[in-house]
Amino acid sequence: MNVDVVVTVAKIAVVLGLLLQVAPIMVWVERRGSAMMQDRPGPNRLGPFGLFQALADAVKFLFKEDVTPAAADKPLYLMAPALALLPAFTTSVVIPWGPNFTWDGKEYAFTVSNADTGVLLFLALASLGVYSLVMAGYASNNKFSLLGSIRASAQLISYELAMTVAVLAVIIPVGSFHLTDVVAYQRTNTWNCLLQPFGFLVFCIAAFAETNRLPFDLPEAESELVAGFHTEYSAMRFAAFFQAEYTSMAALSALGCTLFLGGWSLPWLNYEGMGWLGVALGLGTLLAKVGVCMFVFVWVRWTFPRFRYDQLMRLGWKFLLPVALLNLIAVSAMTLAGWL
Amino acid sequence: MELLVFLIFAFLAVAAALVVVAHKNPVYSTMALVFTLFSVAVLFILLGAPFIGVLQVLIYTGAIVVLFLFVIMLLNIGREDSQIAGHKAQLFFALLGAVSFGSLVILALSSLRPKVLAPLTPELVSLKALASTLFNEFLLPFEIIGLLLTVAVIGATVAARRPTAEESAATAAERSIETKEARP
Amino acid sequence: MPDPQEFLLLAPEILLASAGLLLLLVGTIGRGLGNRHSAVVALASLFLTAIDLYAVGRSVPGSRLLFHGTFVIDGFALFWKSLILIATALTILLSIRYMEEAGYRAGEYYALLLLASSGMLLMASGYSLLTIWIALETMALASYILAGYFKRHLRSNEAALKYFILGALSSGILLYGISLLYGAAGTVQLGELARGLELARAQGSLLVPLGWILLSAGLFFKVAAVPFHIWTPDVYVGAPTPITAYLAAASKAASFAILIRIFYEGLGTLYGDWKWILAGVAAASMIWGNVAALIQDNVKRMLAYSSIAHAGYVLMGVLAASEIGLWSVLYYLLAYTFITMGAFAMVLLLERREYAGETCADYAGLAQRSPFLAAMMVIFLVALTGIPPTGGFFGKVYLFAAAVQAGWTWLAAVGVVTSAISLYYYFRIVVYMYQTDSAEATPVPLRAPALVTVITLCAVATLVLGLYPEPFIQIAKSGLLVVAGR
After folding, report:
1. Is some CB atom of chain B closer than 8 A to the CB atom of A329?
2. Which of A79, B26, B154, C476 could form an S-S bond across to C331 if both were Cys, CB 3.0 to 4.6 Å?
3. Touching partners of B (3+ C-beta pairs < 8 Å)
4. What is the pLDDT of residues B40-63, one digit of tens each?
């Protein structure tokens, strides 16, 4: 059998295995974290620190009745949750999870897809995420859901633009869409969050909006829209939206860490000479960074109030986009001048 | 393998395109358009132009069609009652168009023989080559596209902007004249 | 990278586009510029562009290809560019009074006009199908918005929508044709295209005829030739009248510029193929335009059909593909610009709020109410018919002569017969003006100095072109092209 195929399958298995763990862990983190911030115990009965609560939740989702509203648009209604998972899981194929490794005398990059288009592929696949939201909201045949998906379509477009421009600003000095090259660039220079603080800021804000997290969770604003686009969903279909949200948070965090926070590398440490240990350490480093980011997501959610819709649009178009564009121009100029 | 992928996505592209045209519900049509554009992007990648393919997904599937959906849902355009059945002339011209376009395609396909374009090599479709072509040979068209897009944005803004205070006043004045003229 | 020096030769286009953007920018500061100030700024920028154009023309003797052969500066381009600048300036003069009375914000209006004109300048110089198409779209997008600028008026909305939908369709067809030609010849640069297409045609490639047929369909739409003229009457009637004049003069000139350049330099080697289609379209335009104009009661609509007919006359000259054919086309369009601008200025002057005053009956007794205006209108109508001593006469004579010389006698005969038909509807207005008594006896006040200036200027130009055509023929001869492969 072809070694390349085996390696690719192994890489897919590792990444998919990691991503599948995100949702249960994050549910626990979210609940315990919010409890901590609100000075209450939170779920603490099942297992140590209530860790098994996530398992109990999963069992509950599995056995709950799956309700489809009578007036729903069935094909779209049933397709939407599946479509939500697709971009969430496929985007991370371009992330380098560790240093290159050799197997059978051949060197492999620790990314599932080492395509030329690299980060663009990530952005392209991520941009498909909005369809599941829109579909779900439309198919539910519920006014709250429809409002939620209309909000989602406008919001995601607005912030995607700013995010793409911020990402391009990182790509320019590197001169390659390969994320492995972005990591290599940060290892020879320094982390991009220091080189491009404004780009980093824009990326972070846009990341919150792209994943529909507070303070930008207007598509599912519970105080106005019940639960927005997924009001009508229950059981595993609801869980699929949940899973998709946490997985895309993780994928976007991984992208953010790779672009701005040095990826799998740490300054002054060289994992590359260490063989498999280095690969494991690299993976661990990136996972630790992603973990920190995920905690920031939770932290922000329980700290800030939600934006009003017009404020959201104004922030996106009149602040983030101009800042991102100015950043892009400045970075291009500095790259031309040879400063970056 | 490649042939299989091609067949799947070519079929998907054509089938979804048919749904776009034929479906009575505009939301379904738009969703089908997503599938068409995505399948065409896959075909681009199969042809050895991954950059175009990814940009197709990023721009068309990920942005432009989302705006279509946004507008359709915002205006709450309902199911369109079948108009084609009502208009025989429309059906006739649709068929005429389909037949002539079909024969165009067949004609075009039957004469692909002269190979005037150099075959695509990885060097030719690499990002560097693309960028160098865009900024050397086609620099001027590329720059004019900037002007074109600016004009488009300005035009859209002009078409959509709210009337100014003076314009509202002018409207009110016209209305009052109209009512006066209407009286004998 | 292209030589940075080449951007200096692009200065007229850059200047005009920047002036348009500047107008917009100023519009965001406070209350922005008023109508008159915007118009003055626009006119000043047109003047500066003209000076710049002159300088560019002086510094490039003969012709020169720029930007890897996607842009050309030659006598042909300079001729059209000057014509476009003149037409735009006249449009702005027509607009001042009109915009004031209509009560719309003027800043964007003039800005869009300037941007559309910069697109036209680029069209005139485009030497690659890609440049030409993008420049054409720049012009078209701005024109759609300008046609629908009067948002409160339903007819303006209708005009914009019809223009936009049909225009977008035709642009798609045009682009499809371009893509097929690229597939056949492997290039979009006109000079190489002529050779590539000849080669591909010799190999029996069917992409070649498919490509140029679709391409020419798109071009015929832009010049409003039958059978792609359906948008013209509705758009001409619905659009704000200065914009109608702009579409009829500037937009048509720019579209003919690219049509001639593409047919002569890009498809020149296929002359034997396209001449029949062009002849058919020219004949159909002349016949249908003039016949349909017979039954029109609305003057703007009648002028729209007349502009379709004139597109047919011009196509006849293009078809001749000879030196005399080409310079007669240039001369004719030069004269036509002044005539049509003047005619629309008259419509504008007599027009009252909400499109009233556009029917032939509204011209009744104009000779009593204002002998001066009636006389001017007679000049324009005589010129449109092609009767001496006006520019329209020589234009038509040269066109017919060129057609006969090139062996298209039957086409010239069609032209002469249809010109005779056109006498009926043009002179219907003259009859109304001089023989019918006016319903209202009040004289028409000459209260818009800019308008009256335009009318007088156009009338004088029309007469001068008819009485002393020699220098203008020399100007037209400065813009000759050679048909590739002939």
Report:
1. no
2. C476
3. A, C
4. 998 888 887 788 888 888 888 888
